[in-house]
Amino acid sequence: MAWAPEAHAAPGAGGGSTLEVLRALASGPRGLTEAEAGDRLARHGENVFPGRRPASWPRRLARSLRDPFTAVLLCLGLVSATLAAWGTACVIAVLVGVSCLLRATGEHRADRSVAALRELVATTATVRRRPSRDAPPVTRELPVDALVPGDVVLLAPGDLVPADLRLLRATGLTVHEGALTGESTPVEKRARPGTGAAPAAAGSERPALCLQGSSVVSGTGSGVVVATGRATVLSGALPGARWRTRRPAGPFERSVNGIAWTLIRFMLLTAPLVLIAGALVRGRGLEALPFAVAVAVALTPEMLPVIVTSALARGAGLLARGGEVVVRRLPALHDLGAVDVLCVDKTGTLTEDRPVLALCEDGDGRPDPGVLHWAAVNALWTLHLAELPVPDALDEAVLDAGAAAGEEYGEEYEGVEALPCGPGRRLSTAVVRRPGDSRFALARTHLLVVKGAPEDVLDRCALAPADRERLARRAAGLAHEGLRVLAVARAERPVPGRPYGPADERELTFTGFLGLSDAPAPTAAAALADLTRHGVTVKVLTGDHPGTAARVCRELGLRPGTPVTADRIDALDEAELARLADRTTVFARCTPEHKARIVRALRAGRHTTGFLGDGVNDLAALHAADVGVCPRQGVDVARESADVVLASKDLTALDRAIVVGRRSTANIASYLRITLSSNLGNVIAMLVAGLMLPFLPMFPAQVLVQNLCFDAAQLALAFDRPAPGAGARPAVLRPRALLRFMTGFGLLNAAADLATFGVLVLAAGEDGFQAGWFTENLLTQAMVMVLLRSGRGRAPGPVRCAVAGLAVVGLLLPVTPVGAMLSMSPLPPLYYGLLGLVLGLYAVCLAVARGRWVSPLPRPFP
To answer: Which UniProt keywords apply (predicted)?
Structure first.
């Protein structure tokens, strides 16, 4: 993906001469005056990342109403109010209000947690300004948000680039642009633009530009600010960026919409059936309308928005309290539990972004510790004598490996001179002598130890052409295996009586090769094993060499297969890429657009896909994934675009979050199984009773109280403990599977209700019918809560209390004054005996059906 900073304040910011850029900005090397800076600050605004403003409470609440179940409840509430069924309308209003409040509170808490992470960015910058037009410039520290286009900023090692800069001067300046490009290697910067037209890209392809979000590794420089605030590349000023488009619906939204429409069809069918049956069979006409509305309400899982929000908010709260994971969007926790493919980068996620020694061998391919010895001598004295601003990571890796091997080279030699690596120079030379060695002292000789890129070192060795070609092939083979290869050579030279230079690096004796690889992250292997055990396939999307990525995967126990490179991806259409992505583990040499295409291809292949990224180059893939995950150290714009924020780039924390998401989904699925099967059974029984009986089987007020009791008890399901296997597989709410389940168990529930009707006709008569069915309904629903819950073993305290409460209300309410107010009469003792028989048979049937249908299946729905 190429980014063109056309939004910069200065025309030609990336190309053209320095004078042209300064003229376009009306600035100069001495900087702006304070008055000019004040005027520009008022015109351009503060240099702050725009981000999304936290939504207000009214907006959050209104956004919660877009939930389809909430919309269904609102429609039923309006119908109830129109029919003057104020009790039903008030209950529905309370349920909608509680659901919206819980969801808005959870999202507010997540936004507040993420806002705290924004403080992890630079706050000041070294700026050159003038008090007045004729005054000399003054260098001082200013808040980053006070920078304006035209300011001159000074850069030093360790500084974060505070805005988009065009370099005016650079001395050995290298910049880390991993947040923008994903590359871990620092990029050389120079003040003079390259020859030819400047490409429209960020980062290393514009060597005279330093972009906000990058950091200075070595060297010094100064630059003029060409863009601040919204105009910087980091702030997302990416013309035509695909990640700005609306994200496709995720698994949670698709599932909830599917379930909602299934229930809406049932409601649109059952309510007219009740009216038609009442009018044609019993001649009740419109007097049955309140009962029809009550039937529709009975079919609706009124507590679903509350249960869903409670279960997800509870899971998100558990993760947030551990300080490891912040879920910014509650439905993302369900989507995280549904993830079966996770796409990650290699650097910083699977590896620590530091090299370690993998092998050292001589020219014949045999292990040789002497190669490490001479390489460590070179690294030690290069670091001591060259006065590098930042130690070279490869030198540090060599020294660490030498120390681990017990090498003692600190006092064995004395350093004389060092010729370090530099721009266009891919090798370093350390000149040493051995103290007290009479042969060295008499002959006045020095030892040159050379280490660097194999091609450069071999060209300086005294080798026959065949040997040089053989060693070059060996170095290429090691590089193809994913190693960073260094060649080591040495030579003894008479003291020249002048400073050493590159001309002395000739006729060297080849010593051997070193191979270094990226150090695996300490928790990466265990995390990958856990993810695999939990049914998540990990795919590596990296800009590195395919051999390097494959080697890291093998070291971590991940089978890399045959890596696929970007050029092959470019040659495929979307359908072919979807098939290839499904069977490929490693994608190498990927640009940001390649990553986004791969993620979209995996989603097109019916995978629920997560993507872990932390830079501007990851925005497109973060937006394309079902769940975008960003570590806390990621750039602001990436964190703002992510659904989940991690405290660190640790896959172990992400695996735990996935398990929590699956358990939350299991509780939601448990509620849906219990509620919809019971509700469907009751509706079928109501329809049958309405056709068979000369009276209403239950009054609307009784239906409402029954629903209230059951709804209150169902809140406990959000606190259930799912079975240990609930986190073992991706969990998705599937409307078709739910329809099959509710149909099967709904018919079983209806059979129990119809058997109860027979008992009621036999033992209670018309006077006790409503009270008897009310009692049976609450008892069967209490039984279903125990037998169809997702957890195994003893139910937790909230569930046990809810079940006991349902049973007590069902048995005692008909004999209380409240029961009399609801037109219920006490039941004869014979009824309770026959009801116990019916409930016993129902429990046996439920246990058998559950064992055959639910137990063997690790997912929430069959």
So the answer is: ATP-binding, Cell inner membrane, Cell membrane, Magnesium, Membrane, Nucleotide-binding, Phosphoprotein, Translocase, Transmembrane, Transmembrane helix
Q: Residue 370, Cα to own-chain centre: how many angstroms?
A: 46
More confident residue, 606 or 248: 606
Q: What share of residues in the chain are helix, strand, coil (percent, to 5)?
A: 50, 15, 30
* Longest CA pairwise span in the chain (Å): 126
632/469: higher pLDDT: 469
Structure tokens at 736: 């078709």
Residues linked to residue 422 through DSSP beta bridges, in sequence order: 425
C-beta atoms surrounding 625 within 10 Å: 31
Tokens of 616: 């501007």
From the candidates 151, 164, 340, 345, give the one annotated as an active-site residue: 345
CA–CA separation, 127 and 40 (whole Å): 15
Residues counted in the chain: 862
pLDDT digits (tens, 9 = 90+) for 277-289: 666 555 555 556 6
CA-angle at 845, arms to 839 and 850, nearest 5°? 125
Please tell me the distance from the alpha carbon of residue 493 to that of residue 430, in angstroms, as a whole number: 12
- Determine the Cα–Cα distance for residues 827 and 138; give it in Å rounded to an integer: 94
Return left, alpha or beta for 446; rule: phi > 0 is left, psi -120 to 50 is alpha, else beta: beta
User: Which pair of structure tokens corresponds to residue 656?
Assistant: 């735990």
- pLDDT (0 to 100) of residue 830: 87
Q: Where are the beta strands (DSSP E) in 453-523?
A: 484-494, 509-520
Q: What is the DSSP string of 661-692?
A: HHHHHHHHHHHHHHHHHHHHHHHHHHHHHHHH
Please give the domain boundaries of the chain with CATH numbers for all domains: 18-49+121-240 (2.70.150.10), 252-321+658-853 (1.20.1110.10), 325-350+522-649 (3.40.50.1000), 352-520 (3.40.1110.10)
Residue 82 has pLDDT above 80, yes or no: no
Nearest CA-CA partner of 777 in 810, 746, 821, 812 = 810
For the chain, the distance separating the N- and C-terminal CA atoms, rounded to the nearest angstrom, is: 42
Q: What confidence score (pLDDT) does residue 289 get?
A: 66
17: Cβ contacts below 8 Å, ≥ 6 apart: none
Please give the Cα distance from 291 to 577 (Å, whole number). 55
Q: Is 67 a catalytic residue?
A: no
Where does the pLDDT of residue 576 fall: very low under 50, low under 70, confident under 90, or very high at 90 and above?
Answer: very high
What is residue 724's DSSP assignment? G
* Residue type (1 letter), 123: T
User: pLDDT at position 179, please?
Assistant: 63
The answer to whether the CB of 1 falls within 8 A of the CB of 9 is no
What are φ and ψ of residue 481, in 5° steps?
-80, 0
Tell whether the model's pLDDT for residue 693 goes beyond 50: yes
Residues 6+ apart with CB under 8 A from 678: 710, 746, 749, 780, 781, 784
